[in-house]
Specification:
- The chain is mainly α.
- The longest helix has about 70 residues.
- The radius of gyration is 30 Å and the shape is rod-shaped.
Length: about 70
Amino acid sequence: HTLVHAAEMRAADIQHRAVQQAAEIRREADAYAYSVLQKLREQISQVAQTVDRGLSELDVRHVGEQADERV
C-alpha cells in the first residue's frame, strides 16, 4: 500500500510540474507573439505612411497636370 501511495504522490508531482512548465511556455509564447505583432503593426504603419505620401504626391501631380491642360 505504501508503494502505491508513493507512486501516486510522484505521479501527482510530475503532473503538477508539467502543468507549471506548460503555463510558463504559454506565457513566453504569448509574450513573443505580442512582441512580433507590435513590430508588425509598426512596420505596417510605416508602409501605410509611405503609401499615403505617394498618393499625395500623385494627387499633387494630377492637379498640376489638370491646371496645365486648362491653360
